[in-house]
């Protein structure tokens, strides 16, 4: 493990960025570096480790499955884990009457959502939102509405993808104030169908119900229902990217549940595999079944070991009511950050999908200050990272299982760092 930064420099392409620490071990919400120094983890692998590191149920499921059947490829044979995980995802679909398919990564789930929506509607255009993040493959990057560095120089991108503003109220695209605005930004979707691409050509709208990488913006309660209504009125499918917001992170199983919206398709990944790569697409059976046999899948998608881990994750989420715990602890995080009355810093988010947006005295996003906060936190033993369009939002994404004392200790560190940076 010696000299990881130097070896990284020599062997790893610089396009793949990484944090500065070499980590060796994790347990719950704690991580240890190669020298044995302990850190609290407010990254959770960017919302992946909902159950914390090395949760015994996930470790046991992985060990057992690895010793029984590691891989066959679902295209060549059936096995229990794939079918059982598809059944579980169908059970979690809020509309009932669902079918599911499994893949490896979030981006792949998004790509397959678009493929499925195109097949089901016979239409091709896709509308997505500014500030949203959907992945780094060419199609998911084309849908992404942020990240100059991540998007520059990789084109041409798939065509017929259109963007409209998200309800980023803290930086309103229309320079209006909620609630006087009447959620006018939602009408930009309708406007898009009138002026830029006809609904007659549009297969789906892809939306993150609450922005993750784009800076933890939570839309007002009326926004997502209005987006869903516009989609329904125009015969356009609604795809929810719940890759970061789903599986309890926001305090409900799906972030859409906060808004009473049932999307036609839901993309899930990140927390699903408890650290193993697996993603899923679940939605209305007639939409999912629009793709003919052979149109979906991959070599590793729904690998038996990843499925075993995912089934353990879903069991624990349910048995320990982790969505409920995320709602309660998220309320405490918000209260703690508000009480701190940090200058030029705004807590944002829902449940344990939280962030602290730091700004300059004149209210502009301050990415440099966010970097200093993250570095000061690391010095003091707390791991977090920046996100948002300007890198101005410091992530507070601990495991949903984090002990309350560790959460409070981490928040103390964050508050001190934000005050001093
Ligand atoms: C909302 C959202 N969608 C899609 C993705 C892409 O997932 P992956 O990195 O697994 O491809 C991410 C990753 O951060 C995400 O946050």
Tell me about this structure.
This protein has helices spanning 4-11, 44-47, 56-68, 80-92, 106-121, 138-143, 148-151, 187-195, 223-234, 285-288, 304-319, 322-339, 367-379, 404-420, and strands spanning 23-27, 30-33, 38-41, 98-103, 125-129, 161-164, 202-207, 237-241, 265-268, 279-284, 345-350, 353-358, 382-383, 386-387, 393-396. Strand 2 and strand 3 (38-41) form a beta hairpin. The chain starts with a helix and ends with a helix. The mean pLDDT is 96. It has 421 residues and is α/β, with parallel strands linked by helices. It has a seven-stranded mixed β-sheet, with helices on both faces. It has a four-stranded mixed β-sheet with strand order 1-2-3-13. A four-stranded antiparallel β-sheet has the order 11-12-15-14, covered by helices on one side. It has two domains: 4-54 and 321-420, Alpha-Beta Complex (Aspartate Aminotransferase, domain 1), CATH 3.90.1150; 69-319, Type I PLP-dependent aspartate aminotransferase-like (Major domain) (Aspartate Aminotransferase, domain 2, 3-Layer(aba) Sandwich), CATH 3.40.640. The longest helix is centred in the last third of the chain and has 18 residues, at 322-339. It is built from 14 helices and 15 strands. 36% of the residues lie in helices and 16% in strands. Bound molecules: pyridoxal-5'-phosphate. Pyridoxal-5'-phosphate is lined by residues 46, 105-107, 110, 133-135, 208, 212-213, 241, 243-244, 269. Residues 46, 105-107, 110, 133-135, 208, 212-213, 241, 243-244, 269 line the site of pyridoxal-5'-phosphate.
């Amino acid at each position: 493990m010696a000299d990881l930064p130097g070896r990284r420099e020599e062997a790893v392409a610089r396009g793949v960025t990484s944090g500065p620490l070499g980590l060796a071990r994790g347990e719950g919400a704690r991580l240890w570096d190669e020298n044995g120094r302990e850190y609290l983890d407010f990254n959770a692998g960017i919302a992946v480790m909902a159950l914390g590191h090395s949760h015994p149920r996930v470790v046991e499921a992985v060990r057992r499955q690895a010793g029984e059947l590691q891989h066959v490829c679902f295209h060549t044979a059936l096995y229990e884990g794939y079918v059982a995980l598809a059944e579980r995802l169908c059970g979690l679909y809020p509309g009932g009457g669902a079918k599911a398919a499994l893949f490896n990564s979030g981006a792949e789930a998004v790509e397959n959502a678009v493929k499925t929506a195109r097949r089901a509607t016979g239409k091709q255009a896709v509308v997505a939102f500014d500030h949203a993040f959907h992945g780094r493959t060419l199609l998911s990057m084309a849908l992404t509405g942020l990240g100059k560095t991540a998007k520059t120089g990789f084109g041409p991108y798939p065509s017929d993808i259109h963007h409209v503003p998200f309800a980023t109220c803290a930086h309103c695209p229309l320079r209006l104030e909620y609630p006087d605005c009447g959620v006018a930004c939602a009408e930009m979707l309708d406007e898009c169908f009138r002026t830029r691409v006809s609904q007659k050509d549009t297969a789906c709208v892809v939306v993150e119900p609450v922005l993750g990488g784009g800076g933890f913006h939570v839309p007002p309660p009326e926004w997502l229902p209005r987006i869903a209504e516009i989609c329904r009125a125009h015969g356009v499918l609604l795809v929810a990217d719940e890759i970061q917001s789903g599986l309890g992170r926001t305090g409900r199983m799906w972030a859409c549940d906060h808004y009473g919206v049932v999307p036609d398709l839901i993309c899930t990944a990140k927390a699903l595999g408890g650290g193993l790569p697996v993603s899923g697409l679940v939605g209305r059976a007639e939409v999912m079944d629009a793709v003919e046999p052979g149109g979906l899948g991959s070599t590793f998608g729904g690998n038996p070991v990843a499925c075993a881990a995912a089934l353990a994750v879903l069991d624990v989420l349910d048995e320990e009511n982790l969505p409920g715990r995320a709602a309660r602890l998220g309320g405490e995080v918000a209260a703690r950050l508000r009480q701190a009355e940090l200058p030029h810093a705004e807590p944002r988010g829902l449940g344990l999908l939280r962030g602290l947006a730091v700004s300059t005295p004149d209210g502009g996003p301050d990415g440099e200050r966010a970097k200093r906060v993250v570095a000061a936190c690391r010095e003091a033993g707390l791991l977090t990272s920046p996100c948002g369009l300007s890198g101005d939002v410091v992530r507070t994404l601990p495991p949903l299982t984090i002990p309350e004392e560790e959460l409070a200790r981490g928040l103390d560190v964050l508050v001190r760092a934000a005050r001093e940076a």
